[in-house]
């Protein structure tokens, strides 16, 4: 996992924000900001004393959704990473990822809520398989 020091968690679910905050602070994050919707997220971005290295972004939120946040990030020339973590349908998560790529924003991955520790680890540390005990190993066969 990249060692993110400054993170913005954008999610309308306070329990999810708490889980994410704990996850990141246990992994060395020094500044973790929270926003419950896109409007608040943009305020945090504009007023932050620290450069936000990672935005963990939900898609479905009141006032301003994650898709609209992505549009604003393009307008602000955001250069950090984005992780899409949402209960949104797969098609909506993929659309958000594709839109961000179209805008030259860096999406490090996407995962569906509800989260597990394993899914978070797989999102932020690609070397950790999402299904480590899977029967899909190649058992020494050529890849």
CATH architecture: 3-Layer(aba) Sandwich
In what range is the share of β-strand residues?
15-25%
- The first-level CATH class is given as Alpha Beta
Individual helix count: 5
CATH topology type = Rossmann fold
| Relevant CATH superfamily | Response regulator
Strand order of the largest sheet: 2-1-3-4-5
Architecture overview:
The protein has 143 residues and is an alpha/beta fold. It has a single domain, classed as 3-Layer(aba) Sandwich (Rossmann fold). The protein has five helices and five strands; from the N terminus they run E-H-E-H-E-H-E-H-E-H. The chain has helices at 14-25, 38-47, 66-75, 90-102, 117-124; strands at 6-10, 31-35, 54-57, 81-86, 106-112. It has a five-stranded parallel beta sheet, sandwiched between helices. Helix 3 (66-75) links the parallel strand 3 and strand 4. Helix 2 (38-47) runs parallel beside helix 3. The radius of gyration is 16 Å and the shape is globular.
């Amino acid at each position: 996992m990249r060692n993110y020091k400054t993170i913005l968690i954008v999610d309308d679910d306070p329990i999810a924000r708490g889980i994410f905050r704990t996850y990141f602070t246990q992994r060395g994050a020094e500044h973790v900001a929270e926003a419950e919707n896109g409007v608040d997220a943009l305020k945090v971005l504009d007023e932050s004393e620290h450069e936000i290295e990672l935005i963990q972004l939900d898609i479905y939120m009141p006032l301003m959704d994650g898709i609209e946040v992505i549009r604003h990030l393009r307008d602000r020339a955001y250069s950090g990473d984005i992780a899409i973590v949402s209960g949104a349908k797969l098609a909506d998560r993929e659309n958000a990822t594709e839109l961000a790529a179209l805008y030259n924003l860096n999406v490090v991955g996407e995962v569906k809520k509800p989260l597990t520790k394993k899914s978070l680890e797989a999102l932020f540390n690609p070397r950790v398989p999402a299904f480590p005990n899977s029967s899909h190993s190649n058992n020494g066969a050529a890849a």
